[in-house]
Amino acid sequence: MGAANEQFVVNRDIWNEMGDDLKAMVKTALVAANGRSAAEGEYLIAAAWKDAIEYGIVEVNWTAADGATWVGYQLEWMQQFADDPAAGEFIDIVKEYAEFMGIL
Known about the structure:
Oligomer: single chain
């Protein structure tokens, strides 16, 4: 399975020397590669769920409220690391993102 986000690294000087037409081709190719990877990923995830269900694994679909409760528990658990400034900053970023996404 491909990653859902393809990466492309090029020397900035080389990139700046490239013509706009070549840059556009590279960008278009990356968008296409990302689309293909995402589609392949979704296909493989669906196939894996099909197999899991055939083996008797029960799929659980959480409500948004249940998801928010779980996120809250995880944030409480993470709080024990907040004394470390780097961890505290990370926790703040995760909380802010969760609020932005409407999870909390």
